[in-house]
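Risk register update: the risk of archive-format incompatibility is retired. Evidence:
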Amino acid sequence: MYFDCLNRSNNSFAQNSLSTAHRQKFVAALPSLGFDPRSTPCLKRFQPLKEQSGCIFAKKAKVWGGPDWVEELDLNSNLLRHMSALSLFMDVGRGLGLDGYVLEIKGNKVKSLESFGGLVMDVLCGLCELEGRCGCMRGPLDRIGKFGWWFEFGREQVFVTTFAPFYDRNHSRFQFDCPSDSAYVLFQPEYSFARRDISCGHEPTVWKNPTSARDKVRCSFLNMSQNYVHRPDIDKPNELFVENWNKLKGSRGAEQNYGPTAWQLVKDTRHQGRQSYVEWWTWGQRAKRKQNVKK
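Archived output:
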């Protein structure tokens, strides 16, 4: 209902009313948070990535940051520290025009692909368990790597992007001058993309004189030598890629140019001149638990 309201130009009164209500809710909740998510130390450390990203919308994006990651605490305790702010972000973000929530992780596990991928799996599972309503991380592991799966939180569909210090400068997940002992999980609700008319679409990318927001973003990354692969642009896809593509041929789903959403969440470290992905959803303590239960 809110999505329809915010995307109808003739309904500005409803949009303004929604914004006012959400602004009032944010102001009322701010004292109980114990910090202002609009100006956290985490956001200051994330700023180099925000300023230098190939995404043409990044610099002006309205982003919240969570509390500092405390290495002396266990995973669940750290996630509990994020729950109030992340829940509030999902609750008021649509009305306030917010674009993303940054969760910073510190420690040895951010220094390699497999340990970081497992940590991301544990983080997403932990958040969903604490939130209690979303079932996106429940059930068989293999469904995460298939078409139709999306991360959800607070009744919002969320595109999750990760950045880590082991990605090099020519990778789309390179984090520029952010601290080398930090990695970042960025939660971007789908309404943020809709507001900027960024649609995955099913047409091949227009690399010369792009007009759509989608193609302008892709060309921006290409110009920074950080190109990433999209289904119609690929030359020699692997077998799993072909199998998934054939299942979706002819549809107009948002995943059509990218493969399953999970493939985009934690990226392979290899340069992406070919379609490559890692099964991060099979790594980490939560995945091991599920595998042991299955046995």
